[in-house]
Design goal:
30% of the residues are buried. The strands form 5 sheets. The protein has a 6-stranded mixed beta sheet, sandwiched between helices. Strands 1-2-15 form a 3-stranded antiparallel beta sheet. The protein is of the alpha+beta class. The chain has one domain: Aminopeptidase (3-Layer(aba) Sandwich). It is built from 9 helices and 15 strands. The termini are far apart.
């Protein structure tokens, strides 16, 4: 009986199949590890809300039988329970051309001009984006030139980044300031993109199409002659940078710029989400393209998990604002004063669930 020669085509197919299965297993392993690392219980924010007067009777249980505890607050006679199935990620746009090659002198970094809090709600299957003004007045930690804690101050949120080293420590200071602004809200991760990376990201996504906003001061901006307010355009990378960076020199100038930043981010997000739904690893592809311009504490497994989950969450296409008003401060700088009642109500809508009696 003659020995049969192996079918080379079959062998090649089996090798490719084995490689494919190995890659799928690796991606799945990364996804599962990212899930377990991010979706862990954290502390509950402490909202400045009225609590029941002493002597009032509280219900012993909520509908699912859980005893009311420190995770539940009372507001206008209604009970709200903090949703622990949330993952909150802080996204930063840094006013710097390049990421520093190494940690430099503390207190001399650039500022965080764009601040977006992404709230991923895995219980209600929804994604909420909250825009925070760079001029929001917050309590922040101060460091001296060696990076040693030197007390606290009350200043614009954008400055929290500048007190760090321009890298991880700056991001951590800003994360902590935003957490404090939201009354101790857990923030499980952060990602910062330096301004020089925006054109790279824009072009990698195929350009971003939008209708030019009425307040965009295109006149005199080189390369932006086609960006006439009211016209629909597909922004090049260079145009995208100027579109989200330019602002009028008034107390309301940053608010107008924030609206353009929100508009741009929404358009970019729509394109990226569509790409990730079609190819889950597209998030890692984009990250590798702009990694030289980013700082994050999210490992690849967490990035993969967040990107694939965020792509499938329901999103209404809007970005919420932290409520408040812009005023001219005592030092002639724009200050955004937070409406604490409005912020508490926003947090109840996004991070809490009403306890039905």
């Amino acid at each position: 009986m003659k020995n049969r020669k192996p079918n080379r085509l079959l062998i090649a197919f089996l090798i490719l199949l084995g490689i494919t299965l190995a890659l799928v297993a690796a991606v799945l392993g990364l996804w599962l590890h990212g899930q377990s690392a991010l979706r862990t219980a954290g502390t509950m924010p402490q909202l400045p809300l009225p609590t029941p007067e002493s002597g009032e009777t509280e219900p012993e249980t909520v509908p699912d039988g859980t005893v009311l505890d420190s995770h539940t607050v009372c507001y206008n006679g209604e009970y709200y329970r903090y949703n622990e199935d949330m993952v909150n990620i802080l996204l930063l746009g840094v006013d710097a051309e390049e990421k520093p090659a190494a940690s430099g002198q503390f207190g001399d970094a650039n500022q965080a001009d764009v601040l977006i809090l992404a709230a991923l709600d895995f219980r209600r299957d929804r994604l909420t984006l909250i825009s925070i003004s760079r001029d929001a007045m917050v309590d922040l930690e101060l460091l001296d030139e060696t990076g040693t804690e030197a007390g606290t101050g009350h200043a614009q949120l954008a400055l929290s980044f500048s007190y760090g080293d321009g890298l991880q420590r700056s991001c951590e200071l800003t994360r902590d300031a935003v957490s404090g602004l939201f009354y101790g809200l857990p923030i499980q991760g952060y990602g910062a993109l330096y301004l020089g990376g925006l054109p790279v990201l824009n072009d990698a996504a195929g350009g971003v199409t939008l209708t030019v906003a009425a307040d965009f001061p295109y006149a005199g901006l080189k390369g932006c002659e086609s960006l006439v307010p009211g016209t629909e355009v597909t922004l090049t990378g260079a145009q995208a940078r100027k579109y989200i960076q330019a602002r009028e020199s008034t107390t309301e100038g940053n608010n107008g710029r924030m609206q353009r930043q929100k508009q741009y981010i929404l358009a970019l997000l729509q394109q990226v989400r569509a790409a990730i739904r079609e190819k889950p690893t597209a998030a890692l592809d984009l990250y590798s393209i702009v990694s030289d311009y980013t700082v994050t504490d999210l490992s690849l497994d967490r990035l993969l998990y967040l990107a694939t989950e965020a792509a499938s969450l329901q999103f209404d296409g809007e970005v919420c604002n932290v409520p408040g008003e812009s005023v001219l401060g005592s030092q002639q700088h724009a200050e955004y004063r937070i409406d604490e009642t409005g912020l508490s109500e926003l947090m109840l809508r996004v991070f809490y669930e009403k306890v039905e009696s």
